[in-house]
Amino acid sequence: MGVNNKIAWRNIWRNPRRSLLTASAVVFACVLLIFMVSLQAGSYDAIINTAVRLQTGHLQVQAEGYNEKPEIRKVVRYPHAVADLFNKNPQIEAIAFRANAFSLVSSKERTYGVMIVGVDPDREPMVSTVPGAMQRGEYLAEKDRNVAVIGDLLAQNLSVDVGGELVILGQGYDGSVAANVLTVKGVFRTGQPDFDRGALQIPLTTFQDTHILGDAVHKIVVMGKDLEEVGALAGSIRFDLSQHPTAQDLLVLTWNELMPGLEQAIQLDMVSAWIFYGILIVVVAFSIMNTFVMAIFERTHEFGVLIAIGMKRIRLIGLVLLESAYLTLWGIILGIVAGVGVTYYFQIHGIDISGTEDLFAQYGLPSVLRPKLTVGSVLSGPLIICAVTLLTAAFPTFRILKLPLVRAMRD
User: Fold this and answer.
1) Taking a C-beta distance cutoff of 8 angstroms, is the pair 319, 7 a contact?
2) Is the same domain home to 91 and 225?
3) What domain range is 164 assigned to?
4) What is the pLDDT of residues 74-101, one digit of tens each?
5) Does 254 map to a domain?
6) Do 161 and 186 reside in the same domain of the chain?
7) From CA 67, how far away is CA 301, in angstroms rounded?
């Protein structure tokens, strides 16, 4: 350790109480930032995973233009052959097929406009949480025909329950009338009102027969093994499709392209959170600056003596800055260690907020929240604190440049 390092380290402990309080402020800020940013990351992952499991999947293969203007004629022909082009990709967890059509749905008492979704009963449980959310009755089976499962709010609006009959009336692929009588096999509740109010699922074969769709579907839903690798998976599937002449007019859309509102809501929440984090960082920065302003005023005589015996002012400024760097880095290292430890504990055990299941379900959140430690969540806050505190600590040290030597010797 050089002479300057030894002097800087010694000077920090000349007033141990003040140094410990200052370092504690840095430690607290680091722990709070690591935990809160990690909790945000975990919450966002939970919201996204809930949304994709409920509606879109991680990505979808669709006919060109279907996402902007869903029309029954914009179909993916020979979906099994298309899926065979990429289903051996090791990043893929599951693939399912869906067909959609807006129809009038009538019970004995009421009529509503509903988006009817045809699903493959064998594949749907691998990409959706709906089969596990049955409140009454049972989910669809492969052998089922002319049956449906509906959301609990839609069941209330239609005044129908398990065993009741529904009549659907819509448009077929060829422009003919698509009509059928369905028996309600089950009622599900996902906790998301908008979905439960407008969701009606029927077997894919029933949908195709009713709407004269043949073997075609509107969506090939793909679930990847890792949310963070969805972009790479989409690129891989696009390449596979581009190699086959009959699939080149198909589009691959990721969850954030299918649900842009969700991504925008997450970005807005992140901006508002960082405004709060910025206020915290500013408070810590002023705490550091106050420490060194006081230190410089208390050590004016010392600085005067050092300058008088020949120490250059620039070297003296470097010495003070070295003290601030030691104090800040010491607090940041301890803060990172403590922050990672606290966050990792809650990442394993979760934060149980009992009694909030219904409220959290509306936002796609489970009642047990788990932070998610990432390199970004661990380093982003502490690095910003380090930069800001070093900058604010440097500001008062430049007073040394204009320090009157005679007055300093007298103080």
Assistant:
1) yes
2) yes
3) 65-248
4) 999 999 999 998 888 899 999 999 999 9
5) no
6) yes
7) 74
Is residue 301 predicted with pLDDT exceeding 70? no
In this prediction, residue 204 carries a pLDDT of 96
Q: How many CB atoms lie within 10 A of CB 245?
A: 7
Identify which of 200, 193, 203 has the alpha carbon closest to the alpha carbon of residue 112: 200
Q: Let me know if residue 253 belongs to a domain.
A: no
pLDDT digits (tens, 9 = 90+) for 239-262: 988 888 777 789 999 998 998 888
Judged on CB neighbours under 10 Å (0-12, 13-18, 19+), 348 is exposed
How many structural domains are present in the chain?
A: 2
Of 354, 297, 288, nearest to 324 (Cα)?
288
**Same domain, yes or no, for 216 and 266?**
no
Residue 354 sits in the same domain as residue 293 = yes
List pLDDT tens digits, range 341-368: 999 999 998 887 766 656 555 555 666 7
